[in-house]
Amino acid sequence: MKARTILIVVPLALLMYIYSSQTWKDSAKDATHKTIEQMHSLAPAPGYTLGEIGIQGGPAPFPKTGKTFTARKTSSSSIAKECKAFIAYARQLGTSSLSDETPSKSSPNEHLQITCVATLSGLSAIDDVRVSSTFNLYGFVQHENGKSTLKVDLNRETITPVNKRSNFTYNANISAYYGEIDLDPNTETGTPADERLTILDLIGNYRVTHPQADPYDPAIIDGILKKFRASESKISVKNIADASGQVTRLHVRPTGGYLPFCMSVRKFNPAYFGTPDPGRYYAIGYGEKLSDDAEYGASATGDCPTN
């Protein structure tokens, strides 16, 4: 009995598609690798030391999605100064968006500055354990045969060194990815953070446009938040006054099982944030507890301490 040969015919169009698809992927990968090399060749932010370029992703089962390198420095300068210098560097790299959903949309400098300071100053050392919070920026590069999504993240280790001087370590990761990738799968909308940002914008904008008004007057705060409280009636926003009767904090109790927050509404401090008050673009700083002199937008879970 003769063996039978089975001939499988693959349509030429399918072969061409497979070839062109793989070629496209290879071209996008090559372009992304060139992008990270160009980023690596730029002078780093002052005082930073760059690491070598490495693979982003892998080993199996994690896919290789691009390339990355690190930047690191130790500094005793203010967070505002460090943020300003690093943001200038990040813009040179092509990252200036706060959203991974719209990486090609650049955010204003004051928005980046306020968010960076609020993020990096939000946490403090707990029982000598290193604690950090990460400030993320995104970018986008369109190549002839594909695209590269860029991400830069910066964190500040908050533990005080052994020598007890105010030197803190800043760590950054600079990455370029090819293909479709969700850099922040945890992005949510309609969260208590969104509600608190709305409150900060309402109060901050009023203060900038009414510079002669008492920023802590309970009646003025109530007037600013009247429409918000009416439209968001399920959210409890309670004024918390200091010993002199001035409203310096708000207690926000959201719905949906979220924990309540105490939030500082002390007047925006340009020296602390490193930028004049823009009347918008505010950010929330997170901490374990809220100090009496907490800056505008600083928050901590739980109830506000009362006098």
Tally of contiguous helical segments: 6
Total count of strands: 12
**How far do the termini sit from each other?**
99 Å
Given the helix and strand composition, which structural class is it?
Answer: alpha+beta
Gross geometry: elongated
User: What is the H/E order?
Assistant: HEEEHEHEEEHHEEEHEE
Report mean pLDDT, rounded to a whole number.
82
> Rounded to an integer, what's the Rg over CA atoms?
25 Å
Biggest sheet character: 7 strands, antiparallel
Parts with pLDDT < 50 across at least 5 consecutive residues: 6-10, 12-24
Proportion in helices: 25-40%
Strand content: 25-35%
List its salient traits:
307 residues; alpha+beta; 7-stranded antiparallel sheet; 5-stranded mixed sheet; 6 helices; 12 strands; elongated
Describe this structure in words.
By secondary structure, the protein is an alpha+beta fold. It is 30% helix and 25% strand. The chain has six helices and twelve strands. Strands 1, 2, 3, 4, 5, 6 and 7 form a seven-stranded antiparallel β-sheet that branches. Helix 2 packs across helix 3 and helix 4 packs across helix 5. The protein is elongated and about 60 Å long.
Per-chain topology:
Elements: H1 12-41, E1 49-50, E2 54-57, E3 64-75, H2 79-93, E4 95-97, H3 109-120, E5 134-143, E6 146-157, E7 168-178, H4 192-209, H5 218-231, E8 236-241, E9 247-253, E10 261-264, H6 270-273, E11 285-287, E12 298-301
Parallel strand pairs: 11-12
Antiparallel strand pairs: 1-3, 2-3, 3-7, 4-5, 5-6, 6-7, 8-9, 9-10, 10-12
Helix pairs in contact: 2-3, 4-5
